TrEMBL record:
<dbReference type="InterPro" id="IPR029063">
    <property type="entry name" value="SAM-dependent_MTases_sf"/>
</dbReference>
<comment type="pathway">
    <text>tRNA modification; wybutosine-tRNA(Phe) biosynthesis.</text>
</comment>
<dbReference type="InterPro" id="IPR011043">
    <property type="entry name" value="Gal_Oxase/kelch_b-propeller"/>
</dbReference>
<keyword id="KW-0489">Methyltransferase</keyword>
<keyword id="KW-0808">Transferase</keyword>
<dbReference type="InterPro" id="IPR007213">
    <property type="entry name" value="Ppm1/Ppm2/Tcmp"/>
</dbReference>
<dbReference type="GO" id="GO:0031591">
    <property type="term" value="P:wybutosine biosynthetic process"/>
</dbReference>
<dbReference type="Pfam" id="PF04072">
    <property type="entry name" value="LCM"/>
</dbReference>
<comment type="subunit">
    <text>Interacts with RNF144B/IBRDC2.</text>
</comment>
<dbReference type="InterPro" id="IPR015915">
    <property type="entry name" value="Kelch-typ_b-propeller"/>
</dbReference>
<protein>
    <recommendedName>
        <fullName>tRNA wybutosine-synthesizing protein 4</fullName>
        <ecNumber>2.1.1.290</ecNumber>
        <ecNumber>2.3.1.231</ecNumber>
    </recommendedName>
</protein>
<dbReference type="GO" id="GO:0008175">
    <property type="term" value="F:tRNA methyltransferase activity"/>
</dbReference>
<dbReference type="GO" id="GO:0030488">
    <property type="term" value="P:tRNA methylation"/>
</dbReference>
<dbReference type="Pfam" id="PF13418">
    <property type="entry name" value="Beta-prop_TYW4"/>
</dbReference>
<keyword id="KW-0949">S-adenosyl-L-methionine</keyword>
<comment type="function">
    <text>Probable S-adenosyl-L-methionine-dependent methyltransferase that acts as a component of the wybutosine biosynthesis pathway. Wybutosine is a hyper modified guanosine with a tricyclic base found at the 3'-position adjacent to the anticodon of eukaryotic phenylalanine tRNA. May methylate the carboxyl group of leucine residues to form alpha-leucine ester residues.</text>
</comment>
<keyword id="KW-0819">tRNA processing</keyword>
Length: 669
């Protein structure tokens, strides 16, 4: 009941911001609270999926003299009022079932609010028994869904006709019931109604990092999600319905639904409603919810919703060729400054790693991080220290999704980043530190921050971009590519900044221009750059890899052909070692697994995927919005930070850095 009330408030907030058109939500939800853009998108896709299926049912049955909708666990949903207001219920009766106290509250609201009572019709009156409220074509039934015999009695009492086309709706409801009871209800619906459709929207994938955070959230609310263990994915849910009397059943996750079932112009409308920069969490949320429609004695309830193309499920499961073990760095546990995401880490000298910016935990609260941190490795052990920052402005360096490039032993340049997604990018800073800074004492490092005048302004007012060192005619340049800005959700331009004065230099580039992207990876290789993955203009992950190669008169873009093709991804990190491109983590639309380590041979195009073995970690390892540093001598990869806001389930920050030994996979090539 608590989650139902919270959902009503979230839907109401999404409607207030223009995501969904529904003036009745505010009347039913009562309280109004502004939710975050990520929550708005999550409730938009949920409402859109349910509406899609309901209107499909009404369209298919419009020639029937009578039809009915049974909304199970309806709470304060506004479906009836919207359909009635749109003139779509000429021959359809809507029955809503929920706990007696919930339907009593809803009945009281309807009687009190003229706009609602007018739509219910003149015959509205007190119900009898379980029928709490009875209107012209709308009835509220107070009954516990897990008591099937009571439900049957209540429906009979309310006048439900088992012989006419019937749509059952269960929007995040059945998972709160014991599986034996929800299974019995699914089977009863198929056996009792010869012409029926069943629409269900629920969670899935409980065992990956996001799924574990999701499960933990519901357990803390004392509302465990019972169906997840037995029915963890789309295929299991499909078997569940087909094994209980339903003859057709289609399931898709919400990434596929958004891509396939929402027209492009509507996708663009939603994406432009408010400043947004939580793409990873949005796609992870969508990969952990599904919409299912089952039917019996009627046309399949899903097929017309899909275009003739197949759902982009990324061609079967990812072929995993091996695993890499993740190990905690023993001496780095419990250091709050390392719990962050959207930060950047860079080797400022051998075995010394500087981490800047991001959002994380500081002084016991979540905020944009002001402190810089150093990790140093001596005698095989990592140690952490806090950097002394020298700057007139204490907030200088406080930003997310920037880059840091080390130009010498004593200076680095920090480029771009943002505070809020609605603000402009933040330009450039010099980071100056003593050449004598000591790897054995990480607390002995001081950094002076100097704000640079925006000589190369368009190059630096961006975030989620990449900055890579390149060489041209013996001179060193920084190659700034892609990203997003306050004006453009995705950029495809690039700049060459000369290493000394950081001024923009014009250098000719030929060849097929890569499509615009952000949250990609970029590594220096053979004087040029390797760009991999990213999120494209339609918020779709990209699977392309491009080389920027030096020519006599400039540079040339060149696509890398891979076999098997790279699974599209973004928000990963990358390193090149001896002609091998290593991609670490990220987000993809493959719901069967999470990205681990992908090794691409840049000479042959061979692409191999390795899973990360996390059995020695006691917490979920989220490999997006992280940073990573590769130590070539030890073939060790150090992953720092990572995580994000897990929809309405709370913020997850990886609690400590993780070490991945890659010696076995790099030698096996």
């Amino acid at each position: 009941q608590g989650t139902g009330g919270s959902s009503a408030v979230s839907k109401c907030s999404a409607a207030a911001r223009g995501y969904i058109q529904d003036r009745f939500l505010q009347l039913l939800a009562g309280q109004r609270r502004r939710r975050a853009p990520l929550i708005h998108r999550g409730y938009y896709i949920r409402a859109r999926a349910v509406d899609h299926c309901v209107q499909d049912f009404l369209l298919k049955t419009q020639s029937h003299p009578k039809t009915q909708i049974l909304s199970l666990g309806a709470g304060f949903d506004s479906l009836y009022f919207r359909l009635k207001d749109m003139g779509l219920l000429h021959h359809t009766v809507v029955y809503e079932v929920d706990f007696p106290n919930v339907v009593c509250q809803k009945a009281t609201l309807i009687k009190r609010i003229k706009e609602l009572s007018a739509l219910v019709g003149d015959t509205a009156g007190e119900g009898l028994g379980a029928v709490t409220f009875s209107g012209e074509n709308y009835k509220l039934l107070g009954v516990d869904l897990s008591e099937l015999a009571e439900l049957e009695r209540a429906l009979e009492e309310a006048g439900v006709d088992n012989e006419i086309p019937t749509l059952f709706i269960a929007e995040v409801v059945l998972t709160y019931m014991e599986n034996s009871r929800s299974d019995a209800l699914i089977q009863w619906a198929a056996e009792s109604f010869p012409q029926a459709c069943f629409l269900m929207y629920e969670q899935m994938h409980p065992e990956d990092p996001f799924g574990r955070v999701m499960q933990q959230h519901f357990s803390q609310l004392n509302t465990a999600l019972h169906s997840l263990a037995q029915y963890p994915d789309c295929e299991a849910q499909q078997r569940r319905f087909l094994g209980r009397g339903w003859t057709e059943c289609s399931v898709m996750d919400m990434n596929d639904f958004f891509t396939c079932c929402i027209p492009e112009d509507e996708q663009q409308r939603v994406q432009s409603l408010e400043p947004f920069d939580e793409y990873e969490e949005w796609h992870l949320k969508c990969s952990h919810y599904f919409v299912l429609t089952a039917s019996k004695g009627m046309k399949p309830s899903w097929t017309p919703l899909l275009p003739s193309v197949t759902v982009p499920r990324s061609a079967g499961p990812v072929r995993i060729v091996g695993s890499v073990r993740a190990a905690e760095c023993a001496k780095l546990s419990g250091i709050p400054g390392l719990r962050r995401y959207g930060h950047h880490s860079v080797l400022i000298k051998p075995n010394v790693v500087l981490t800047t910016g991001g959002f994380g935990e500081e002084d016991g609260q979540h905020c944009r991080m002001r402190s810089f941190h150093v990790l140093s490795k001596t005698a095989g052990c990592w140690k952490a220290g806090c950097v002394t920052k020298k700057s007139a402005d204490k907030r200088l360096g406080e930003r997310l999704y920037h880059t840091v490039s080390c130009l010498s032993d004593s200076r680095a340049v920090l480029i771009g980043g943002r505070t809020s997604p609605s603000s402009a990018g933040l330009g450039m800073l010099w980071l100056k530190f003593h050449e004598t800074c000591n790897a054995s004492d990480p607390d002995d490092i001081a950094v002076e921050l100097v704000n640079l005048q925006p000589a190369a302004e368009p190059a630096t007012l961006r975030w989620r971009h990449s900055t890579t060192e390149v060489a041209f005619k013996g001179e060193q340049y920084l190659f700034v590519y892609g990203g997003c800005s306050a004006l453009d959700p995705v950029l495809g331009d690039w700049y060459f900044l000369h290493n000394q004065e950081l001024s923009s230099t014009s250098i000719a580039v030929e060849g097929p221009v890569p499509e615009s992207r952000h949250s990609h990876s970029a590594c220096s290789w053979e004087g040029g750059v390797v760009i991999a993955g990213g999120l494209g203009a339609a918020e779709q992950p990209l699977g392309s890899v491009f080389l920027l190669r030096e020519l006599e008169h400039g540079f040339q873009w060149q696509a890398v052909e891979m076999h098997p093709p790279l699974v599209p991804r973004y928000s990963h990190t990358a390193h090149v070692h001896e002609g091998k491109l290593l991609l670490v983590g990220g987000v993809w639309f493959h719901t069967s697994s999470v990205p681990g380590i992908t090794v691409i041979d840049l000479m042959t195009g061979l692409c191999l995927d390795y899973v990360i073995n996390v059995e020695h970690l006691e917490w979920p390892l989220m490999l997006h919005n992280h940073s990573s540093v590769f130590l070539p001598n030890e073939k060790e990869l150090l992953v720092i930070g990572g995580g994000g806001n897990c929809f309405s389930f709370g913020t997850h920050l990886n609690p400590e850095p993780v070490s991945l030994s890659l010696s076995n996979i790099l030698t096996s090539h």
